C-alpha cells in the first residue's frame, strides 16, 4: 500500500520550509516511527517519521527544495520489506573496508546536508575537518554543532584554519564574504521590520535598585540550591514581578488582531534566548502558577534546547508578553522591539553601581535601567508608566510579589 509523505502542518507564522536531510533513500528499509526526513523552518527543524514498516518509494522534494505546509514531499510503501533488501546489502559491502571509506569523507569534499552547510558557513568551519556520522559519511547539522562546541571549549583553535585565507591577503586588497541569510535570521529581520512599520511603538524607562534582590539571593542561595537543585537567578524574580503587574494592567497583556483587541486571561511570558543561529523566544506557560524554582528550571531547559537546536514550535508560540535581557552582554540601556502580536516587551540591562540620593544622603547602589516598549495603539502612556513602576516596586521590595500588594 502506497501512502504520501507530507511535510508537517506549519503554524500560521511559518509560511514554508526547506527539506534539510533525507535520512532514508528510495528502496531503503524503514521501521515505524523511524526518522526519515528533516524539514527546516524559520524557527525550528521539524522531524518526519515513517508511518509504518516499509520503504521509501519515491522522493518528490530533494534536499534544499522548498516545501509548503502539508505538501507531499515523497511516497512511502507500507509493508514492502522485500524491496528493501538490496539497500540492506549495501552497508555489508561497505563494512568490508571501513578504514578506506572514512578518509574519503574527510580528505576531499565532505558531504553536507543543507542545514549542516549553512551552520558551517556561519561559524567559518572547514567541512573537511568535521567527521560525519550520517549515512555514507554524510556530515549532519549535529556533527557541525558538536564540532563548533568542542572548538569553543578548546579555545577555538580548530575553527581558525577556515578563517586563515581571509587573513593572509595581499596588501591593499579588501576581501568580502557573502553568506545567504538563514531562515531564522531572515524571519527575525522580517518580524522586526514589520513591528516597527505596523505598531505605534514607544518606550518608557525607569531604574530599579537591585540590592534587595541581590541580598535575598545571597541569603537563600545555598538553601535554594540544596532544595531545588538549581541556582536562584534574577530572571525568575522579573518573571514573577511581570506576571503580577500584567494582572493589574490587562492591556499590557493583550494583543491586537486586525481591528480587535484580544485580552488574555492568563500570562504566558516569553524569555528571549540568544543562540548561534539567532534570537529565539521560548514561552513560560501559565507563569502565574509557577514558583521561582519552576521558572529557573524551565529557563535552563529552554536554554539547553536552544543551544542544541531542539526547541519545538510549540515552545515558541503563543506568548502574551516578552522579557529580554541585554544586560548579560553588557548593555546599559536600550529600546527593545515588540514581538508581534504582543503589545509590550520588557528590557533588562546591566547592573551597575551608581551614586544615588537616599534620604538626603549619597549611597552607592547596584542599579539597573528598565525599558518597556509598548504599542501606543493599545496601551496609553499612563498605563505603561504605572506598569513599569509596579515592577520596580515589587523588585525593590520582593515581599510585594508574595503578598500581591
What would you note in describing this structure?
The chain is 34% helix and 24% strand. With 405 residues, the chain is an alpha+beta fold. Strands 9, 12, 15, 16, 17, 18 and 19 form a seven-stranded mixed sheet that branches. A four-stranded antiparallel sheet has the order 1-8-6-3. A four-stranded antiparallel sheet has the order 5-4-2-7, with no helix packed on it. A hairpin with a 4-residue loop joins strand 4 and strand 5. Helix 8 packs across helix 10. About 10% of the residues have low confidence.
Short description:
One of its GO terms (molecular function) is dihydrolipoyllysine-residue succinyltransferase activity. By secondary structure, the chain is an alpha+beta fold. Helices cover 34% and strands 24% of the residues.
Helix and strand topology:
Elements: E1 2-6, E2 16-22, E3 29-30, E4 35-40, E5 45-49, E6 54-59, E7 66-68, E8 72-78, H1 85-95, H2 98-107, H3 114-122, H4 141-153, H5 160-167, H6 183-198, E9 201-209, H7 211-228, H8 235-248, E10 255-257, E11 260-262, E12 269-271, E13 273-274, E14 279-280, E15 283-284, H9 292-308, E16 321-325, E17 344-348, E18 352-358, E19 361-375, H10 381-396, H11 399-403
Parallel strand pairs: 12-16, 16-17
Antiparallel strand pairs: 1-8, 2-4, 2-7, 3-6, 4-5, 6-8, 9-19, 10-11, 12-15, 13-14, 17-19, 18-19
Helix pairs in contact: 3-4, 8-9, 8-10
Amino acid at each position: 500500500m502506497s501512502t504520501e509523505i507530507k511535510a508537517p502542518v506549519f503554524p500560521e507564522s511559518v509560511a514554508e520550509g526547506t527539506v534539510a536531510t533525507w535520512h532514508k533513500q528510495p528502496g531503503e528499509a524503514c521501521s515505524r516511527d523511524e526518522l526519515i526526513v528533516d524539514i527546516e523552518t524559520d524557527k525550528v527543524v521539524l522531524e518526519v517519521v515513517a508511518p509504518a514498516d516499509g520503504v521509501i518509494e519515491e522522493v518528490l522534494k530533494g534536499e534544499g527544495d522548498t516545501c509548503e505546509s502539508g505538501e507531499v514531499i515523497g511516497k512511502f510503501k507500507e509493508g514492502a520489506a522485500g524491496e528493501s533488501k538490496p539497500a540492506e546489502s549495501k552497508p555489508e559491502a561497505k563494512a568490508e573496508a571501513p578504514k578506506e571509506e572514512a578518509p574519503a569523507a574527510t580528505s576531499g569534499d565532505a558531504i553536507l546536508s543543507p542545514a549542516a552547510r549553512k551552520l558551517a558557513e556561519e561559524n567559518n568551519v572547514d567541512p573537511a575537518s568535521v567527521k560525519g556520522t550520517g549515512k555514507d559519511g554524510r556530515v549532519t547539522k549535529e556533527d557541525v554543532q558538536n564540532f563548533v562546541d568542542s572548538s569553543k571549549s578548546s579555545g577555538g583553535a580548530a575553527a581558525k584554519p577556515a578563517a586563515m585565507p581571509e587573513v593572509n591577503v595581499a596588501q591593499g586588497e579588501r576581501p568580502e564574504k557573502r553568506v545567504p541569510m538563514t531562515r531564522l535570521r531572515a524571519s527575525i529581520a522580517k518580524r522586526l521590520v514589520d513591528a516597527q512599520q505596523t505598531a505605534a511603538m514607544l518606550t518608557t524607562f525607569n531604574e530599579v535598585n537591585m540590592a534587595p534582590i541581590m541580598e535575598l539571593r545571597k541569603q537563600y542561595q545555598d538553601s535554594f540550591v540544596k532544595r531545588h537543585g538549581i541556582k536562584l537567578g534574577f530572571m525568575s524574580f522579573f518573571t514573577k514581578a511581570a506576571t503580577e503587574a500584567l494582572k493589574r494592567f490587562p492591556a499590557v497583556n493583550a494583543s491586537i488582531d486586525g481591528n480587535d483587541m484580544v485580552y488574555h486571561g492568563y500570562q504566558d511570558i516569553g524569555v528571549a534566548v540568544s543562540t548561534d543561529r539567532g534570537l529565539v523566544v521560548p514561552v513560560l506557560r501559565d507563569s502565574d502558577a509557577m514558583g521561582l524554582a519552576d521558572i529557573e528550571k524551565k529557563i535552563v531547559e529552554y536554554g539547553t534546547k536552544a543551544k542544541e537546536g531542539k526547541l519545538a514550535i510549540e515552545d515558541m508560540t503563543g506568548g502574551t508578553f516578552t522579557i529580554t535581557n541585554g544586560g548579560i552582554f553588557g548593555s546599559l540601556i536600550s529600546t527593545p522591539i515588540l514581538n508581534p502580536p504582543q503589545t509590550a516587551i520588557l528590557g533588562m540591562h546591566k547592573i551597575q553601581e551608581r551614586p544615588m540620593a537616599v534620604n538626603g544622603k549619597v549611597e552607592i547602589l547596584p542599579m539597573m535601567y528598565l525599558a518597556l516598549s509598548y504599542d501606543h495603539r493599545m496601551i496609553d502612556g499612563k498605563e505603561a508608566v504605572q506598569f513599569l513602576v509596579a515592577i520596580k516596586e515589587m523588585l525593590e521590595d520582593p515581599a510585594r510579589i508574595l503578598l500581591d500588594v
